[in-house]
Design a protein that fits this description.
Chain lengths: 356, 356, 356, 356
């Protein structure tokens, strides 16, 4: 089953209704896009794991660091406690602080949280400084609160939107992408959804087709002009009942999906995967009346199908971002072309992989 | 050689001139203390590894996570690249964003940094919410820039100052503490300096003497009233020529010093050690004219004396914080008593460890 | 409540019946001691987490690496899957292979395991080469199977026995030690038991008393003759219902207990903590008829008392090893004196800590 | 430049003379193949980083754990000290002990090592139990010493040889594979060589072509018969002057190469990358007459080309193993077919990737 509108089919598993992270029930996505004047090309994207009070009902979570040249906020507490208690916020490198402040404000303002004095906000970023006046730090706390307020389920807007407004991927315009995979009912029928903020380089492959090489645009093809640096934030949601250790294993597989697009996790990349489970039975109450936490989770032996789903959904989410993004001009007149669809389709046809 | 004014002697190695992190040549410390009205009891403390442009001349660095229930910013890039390129900033839990913004502003404003679009700011925190109106987020970017501007070498102000203004340690008033150790000339004569922001609990021991037990104030002594939660930020500097892997090993030993004070790294602790080397020869230029990075560093086999120094300096820095801090009343009229010096001296005498 | 026969009392929590790892119900310990001729001074110690088929009923487990200069077998599978499926075997550095072979033979021979083709054997070691002809690799697979067969509950033989036969600790004769702590009923009444193989150095403190310094025997006291190198294997068992992430946190606290004895985790140390839970409800069946694994475990918020128990039990287990070990002469006539009990008692009295 | 005999071209960088790990000067590879009777189908492969005494002249090294369901010996010391001091030995899962013993014997026997009492042996494994009577533990210490003695530079024998004798990959006959990549002179001209022991599954892709899907043989294609379990050991050598942290980064990229072949690092996989640098200037002497270790290494900023080389060499080494391996029948009459070359070539032609 192909993604609607995509000229390729990736992997062997089917996707969900929206082919997006929102196919995991309850997950909501919100964007705030900032395009102002000649040089503001940035924004924020938030992912809400469920519709309730995230601080009072935390979700099991894990982070995998593909390459740590980034400013991810919140990682050590996720690793220590195995949960997330705030929205997951994506923005640009120099506006992580706005994300933290917005997350705190959002949390403190909820009425059950009036006594809260500590909350771990998760903020990821990529560097949109080629198109965006990143030194201006244009994303405000209020912008991010707008993105939270805009969060909804259903189809996910992709491409030059939210935190992907000004990003660059494999030398083409990047942005936000999303995809999902659904396991067969006999394997539990679980969904894995992924959302990516693509801003990295390497040697682009689309469904294994050497598109970057064919287009003559790839890392080292021209030693002066093709830095592979940049980053990819990957957020993975699943409704499979998993605790942190299993989620960390899924997160690592998402990074394998990035590898399949030709990403190389270059020295300057901040490549992180944040994975969480939305299954109601594994949530962690902030304060519980119970003495013990009773959970029913998948055995290690049953995780491999989810691994495949994580790889495929991530690979496709990245490719979807490229197909969705549009040519953009920004700071200093810098211009980044969208992936040339017609040329790409020709290449896909050449390699017999055109499957619209 | 005892620390001036301290009633105990800890360990077997001598300390440096100031018995402080500033005994490591070039390291500067600055505080901004906020005591306003009835309920603002907070602040910031910054540590500058050297007097130059930190972004252009990065220092090798590592982080050890004792317990990760904290909001440390900047950790993954330190781990990936093995360096620090900004001041190390300490403040309260909900003002980490102010720290990040201040660090960015400080970096972007330096004239060699006019093209910089990405910088990794290191901000640690502990939760001063018992004495301070932490939800008010009173520490501003400007406050932290003030602390940076105030940074100097020489004696370090300790106790209720800067980021330690409102902290609590073992149920007594905590705060900033510092100490150092110097190796014998035959072992290289290197200095290890430590600065701590103490806000944690357990079963207090001073130089091995069971002070917490004698005072009847310790974790589990009264199951309702003695949470051990809280955090300890530990910053360790050395002039020994070390790269990141060796610094990570030193950082882990600093945590062993915390253990010796009776800290238990409770569930709710954010206990981190940030270690860096100031040796000029190991600095990492942001952009280098050289093809290779030539360094001359200590062999693994020669690190054990530095390990001992790290343990001792950390243990003593924590104890120094307790001796320096003074009784404080803050938010909601909450009052935390200073460590009762006279009673403590009696206890030290009882156990034959009084060594003024 | 003091340990029987010990001249000091460590910590604030009571110990269990045997003040040993076997206070955790179901845990069994077996030794095989090899003292032959002038230069064989070695052996093996095994810990069985429960009395059943460990491969078919795995226990949740974690490992913390204090300092990784050691040859621990089995670590990555414990980390990946969060369980142990074999006895935990301790022996000398160059006989780890004998331990692996014995563990495999033991596992393959059990009748439910006739189809087993892969099993992860956990073998730790310390280096007894000062007293023992370690290059001779005298511990055989059969010796280790003897230790497994000898495993029993109840009091644990300590000192110069099993894997501790030839070890050295703080310059005195080390060996096997064990201790336990029991939480108050109101906190669950759980037991934490620890067994250590002590072979390391530093600046010895007993219950905080500077024994090493008083005896003039400590790291750096004489720069030529006092290497702190060596290792400490720590095995921690608990009946608290915990999965791997919580056990890893307990394991880290055990290392804090080592710090309190004055250990410095020197460059040449292989310091590892292996922690497991024996609670029947958290066991992992090798193959399950169920789709989901239902467990009821402690919340993170309730772990701190167990942390304190882990610290105290480890500290005391190390001290117990020193008090139990006896003077030994071995390879090349090398002689290691036992801790001089009378002198130590005098020192404890001097510091008012003599509590027989 | 294609590999001789390979029907595809992978990546954008050229390979070295032998398209093998031995293109890194000084690296030697040795095999011992055991094919006896109906059910012994196993062996050992060893990689020697240089031709001298490895214990006396250690090489900087790192390990990346892709999935830790394996029995790798020696990992923690590599991680702690950043070096390897023994041959790297590959064999089957239940013969790791033979590998350790052989490594110890080899080391102790060298005349400069007569006082050595501790050595860290690196042994990796995959499970050849489908074709081989693995429970018989047929690989002996002597067999592994034979492999060490057989080690040589030049072309590397691949396929059903040494530790790859009985392995299975993507449902076809796996085995040993090797490949290399060489950077342009302007980027230093460094070589990266990889050797793999392939025994894993997933959804096979060759140069991005969906071969597994076309052949109808892939994970989940038939839910009963297609477990993806198994493992991949990856050994990476480079002559670039790198210390352990950079080597760990390269090791992680090798795992990305595995991802590109369609491997999913299934639950039951033991996927590890062992990376070392052979550059003479970064070697670590066991005992040095110098006070400091002077090294000249690449800057982080210059690593990305090596990352690409590591990805490509690993991807191709795995594919080379599949093309080199031949159909084999073993234990219980179990038979594993070689990759059907003609069918694969047809598929490659279908997708326009046939490049002999």
């Amino acid at each position: 089953v192909p993604a609607p509108g995509s000229p390729v089919r990736i992997g062997v598993l089917p996707h969900g209704t929206y082919n997006a992270i929102t196919d995991v029930a309850g997950v909501r996505v919100g964007h705030k896009t900032l395009i102002r004047g000649a040089s503001v090309r940035t924004g924020a994207t938030v992912i809400l794991p469920h519709g309730g009070n995230l601080f009072q009902e935390k979700v099991p979570a894990a982070v995998y660091v593909g390459n740590g040249f980034g400013k991810l906020a919140g990682i050590t507490q996720i690793k220590e406690l195995g949960n997330i208690e705030s929205p997951v916020i994506l923005t640009n490198t120099l506006n992580v602080a706005a994300g933290i402040n917005a997350g705190i404000s959002y949390t403190l303002a909820q009425k059950e949280n009036q006594q809260v004095q500590s909350v771990n906000i998760v903020v990821g970023e990529t560097n949109d400084g080629y198109l965006n006046d990143i030194r201006g730090r244009h994303v405000t706390e209020e912008d991010i609160l707008d993105a939270i307020r805009a969060a909804r389920s259903g189809a996910v807007e992709q491409g030059n939107t939210g935190a992907g407004t000004g990003t660059v991927c494999f030398g083409f315009k990047g942005g936000i992408g999303s995809a999902s995979r659904v396991l067969p009912k006999t394997l539990g029928g679980y969904t894995v959804g992924v959302l990516v903020q693509t801003n990295f380089g390497g040697v682009l492959e689309i469904a294994g087709v050497p598109v970057g090489k064919e287009l003559g645009r790839y890392f080292l093809s021209d030693q002066l002009n093709n830095p592979a640096d940049g980053s990819c934030m990957i957020v993975l949601a699943t409704d499979a009942p998993l605790l942190a250790p299993s989620l960390e294993r899924l997160a690592k597989r998402a990074f394998m999906g990035l590898a399949k697009t030709g990403g190389i996790a270059s020295n300057g990349s901040g490549d992180y995967v944040i994975a969480f489970s939305t299954h109601p039975s594994v949530r962690i109450p902030h304060r519980s009346g119970d003495t013990l936490h009773t959970t029913a989770t998948l055995f290690n032996d049953d995780l491999s199908p989810l691994f495949l789903a994580a790889i495929e959904a991530t690979e496709e989410a990245i490719i979807n971002a490229l197909f969705a993004a549009k040519t953009m001009t920004g700071r200093n007149g810098n211009k980044i072309e969208a992936l040339p669809k017609e040329a790409v389709i020709s290449i896909l046809k050449k390699y017999n992989r055109y499957q619209p």
